[in-house]
Amino acid sequence: MGDKYMKMMLMTDNQKLKKLLHLTFQRDSGFIDVLQDYQLAERFLKRWPSEWEILLLDQPTDHDLAQMLQLKRTNRHLKIIVLARQIDPAVLIHWTKFPPDLILAPEISLQDLIQKCEQMLVPTIQAPDDYPTLRSLQPQKNGRICLNPDEFNIVVDREIVVALRPKEFELISYLVQAPGRVFTREELMREIWQYKYFADDRTIDTHIKNLRKKIPFPCIATVWGVGYKYDETQNMG
């Protein structure tokens, strides 16, 4: 990726494409989230509009494409790239004001795809973290932490609201479901990032490091050579 730091959301169920792009982004210090649920993707993009620069849609249905193109009404910086053999002209005519930024053949090589993405990048300003006010929560309390899935934040000791990124929230939610249980990196990668045959320690470790910085008390313990566990009784020194 050269000197460019790319932030991408990929919508696909293609395991090969998912793995290749993930490897490329990890190697070149990029940032990629892979999703299959378009409604969830829409929620993320509306909640954190500056979190991603490129939305890559792998052969979406006409309905999903139209749904994603609507996001450009509010996310003007978002670049939408579509991998598709054919798109219904009615969809593009209906959204002439916000068409895809680029339409590519699904057979495009990975190198050419990355190059096309890089050419579309422009400098962006990172929005400040949004710390929402504490409002009516559906309590999912685990010890000192209360999970708030509607806002993707956690509430510590009933008063401290901690805003998290989507994968950070998924990770802490997964750990707190079984306090004291050790989860391997492979299990976390499989369950949260949906990779069955590939795991990169840096991905997990980076998100754990971020969570430790944000949560105001030690609660994630490292079990060396195995993985991580949620433990509010630990002494991190």
Automatic annotation (TrEMBL):
Protein species of origin: Weissella kandleri
Protein name per Swiss-Prot or TrEMBL: OmpR/PhoB-type domain-containing protein
Known DNA-binding region: 132-232
Cross-referenced InterPro entries: OmpR/PhoB-type_DNA-bd, Sig_transdc_resp-reg_C-effctor, WalR-like, WH-like_DNA-bd_sf
Keyword Transcription: yes
A molecular-function term among this protein's GO annotations: transcription cis-regulatory region binding
A Gene Ontology term for the protein's cellular component: protein-DNA complex
CDD domains: trans_reg_C
UniProt-listed GO biological process terms: regulation of DNA-templated transcription
SMART domains: Trans_reg_C (SM00862)
Residue ranges annotated for the OmpR/PhoB-type domain, each copy included: 132-232
Keyword vocabulary terms for this entry: DNA-binding, Phosphoprotein, Transcription, Transcription regulation, Two-component regulatory system
UniProt entry tagged with the keyword Nucleotidyltransferase: no
Pfam families, A to Z: Trans_reg_C (PF00486)
